Known about the structure:
Elements: E1 2-6, H1 11-26, E2 30-35, H2 40-45, E3 49-52, H3 57-62, H4 64-72, H5 75-101, E4 106-109, H6 117-124, E5 128-132, H7 153-183, H8 194-199, E6 204-206, E7 223-225, H9 241-248, E8 254-257, H10 266-280, E9 284-287, E10 302-305, H11 310-313, E11 319-322, H12 326-335, E12 339-341, H13 348-357, H14 372-384, H15 386-400, H16 404-415
Parallel strand pairs: 1-2, 1-4, 2-3, 4-5, 5-6, 6-7, 8-9, 8-11, 9-10, 11-12
Helix pairs in contact: 1-16, 4-5, 5-7, 6-7, 10-14, 12-15
Amino acid sequence: MKITIVASGTRGDVQPYVALGQGLHAAGHQVRVLSTGDFESLAKDAGLEFISTGMSIEQMLQNPEWRQVTESGNFLKVIGKMNAEMKRRAEDFAREMPSAIEGSDLLVTGMGGMGGAFSIAEKLNIPIQLAYLFPFTPTRAFPAPLFPRLPLGQVLNPLSFQVLRQIFWQSTRIADVETRKRIGLPKASFWGPYGALDRRRVPTIYGYSRHVLPDAPDWGDHIQVTGFWFLEAAADWTPPSSLVDFLKFGPPPVYIGFGSMGSRNPEEATRLTLKAVELSGQRAVLASGWGGLSSADLPDQVYMLSSVPHSWLFPQMAAVVHHGGVGTTAAGLRAGVPSIVVPFMADQPYWGQRVHDLGVGPAPIPRKRLTAEKLAAAITQAVSDAGMRQRAAALGEHIRSEDGIRAAVQMIEQHHHPA
Length: 419
């Protein structure tokens, strides 16, 4: 089959779809990825075709206004900024996307499909395979990810998913309106495509582990939790010799990195992090990522890196501190070491709470409430709590025993056949 994957978000959001695409490619399918230009090398290095949808997420998140919004933790503000960006890009997206998707035998997408891809598939009569990284299908079993602490109960839990869907749909609807206008379709329902997708029982896969979040018993057999979709390090990748030496000559350090979540004041963020490391008495590996951490004047017990595969690094850590993005959360859990989540926005508080509820990490610390003392206390708990470490190791074994990509490919092939 000719399969097009539409993915959006930061690296932690896009990388699992690239991993899924690599699995589909290995199974003999022709796969192309549509995403922002940041991830062209990621997709091509995985052996996949790539088409850019334009704007750079990295550049956007480095904008001071975006940094202020992400650090606020106010998800409605984040959605408002997304809507404004979508309005700016709507015409370009509507002009470019139909030709990028045309000719596909199957469209694989989740959140990335809401800005017009669903409508293009409708116009071109291309089957859809829904693929999500967090729960998005209504269920009575648990509330939607934006409501991790609300005891809504079995009656109101499904409503929380309708609210979640509307928040995302309304933030991208302008692009869908422009797309449908350009391809000659009437406006979609104000409430979005979900009702129709549900009624059609469109095949749906979830790229997380049932050991982290159990299956919803009221989901149909067209919905499957497959396990996480991990992208492994390239076979020819080798770590920096200085990092290997740092790890060799001392006890396992703590990893600290916040991925693509920028800071308005990177110098202050660095000072806070280094003070927490000092207070905890641990060694640390700091990842600058897109977070703006500076390597100036680092003490001997701290090593700074820009980018290293989590699959190689995390198993060698005493604990991992991160922002709670689904990709980093998955990597930390698979490594079998405790995780300390400092959520900024979106689904990050949800994964932080799941980590804590599973007993494999301290309570999450929202970014806007983060202090050196709180971070140091969480690090100390993570490295010294024997029960937490045992639970983390056991969960890591369960996750490593799964093959989420293989299960996902099998379901896709089961439900979709080439014309």
